[in-house]
Automatic annotation (TrEMBL):
<feature type="region of interest" description="Disordered">
    <location>
        <begin position="42"/>
        <end position="75"/>
    </location>
</feature>
<protein>
    <recommendedName>
        <fullName>OmpH family outer membrane protein</fullName>
    </recommendedName>
</protein>
<keyword id="KW-0732">Signal</keyword>
<feature type="signal peptide">
    <location>
        <begin position="1"/>
        <end position="25"/>
    </location>
</feature>
Length: 103
């Protein structure tokens, strides 16, 4: 016979060690997420060393700016979108004409 018994509270704690992570993984899986990646993000395990050092920098430090990529200017973007709208308008008119011909 064992000299020590496991108390009900110890059983409860041992059960929670297994039940809570399984419930977390199940809920993540049901929501269509990756449970392992969620756990890593939640605990900070998924961060690389430079990213972890960045977050531990002083809060008064100036934010690091990323180099700007070559983006088209606003005028070029507007012109491109206007051309796209014109093409779609022409396509709509063609489809309306085809619909009228079918009726």
């Amino acid at each position: 016979m064992p000299k020590r018994k496991v108390t009900p509270f110890a059983r409860f704690l041992l059960a929670m060690v297994f039940i809570v992570p399984l419930a977390f993984a199940g809920a993540s899986y049901i929501n269509g997420e990756d449970p392992i990646q969620n756990f890593k993000d939640w605990t900070g395990m998924g961060q690389s060393a430079p990213a972890a050092q960045e977050t531990s920098a002083s809060p008064n430090a100036a934010p690091v700016r990323k180099a700007k990529t070559a983006k088209p200017s606003l005028d070029e973007e507007v012109k491109r979108l206007e051309k796209e709208v014109a093409k779609r308008d022409a396509a709509i008119k063609d489809l309306q004409q085809q619909l009228e011909n079918c009726q």
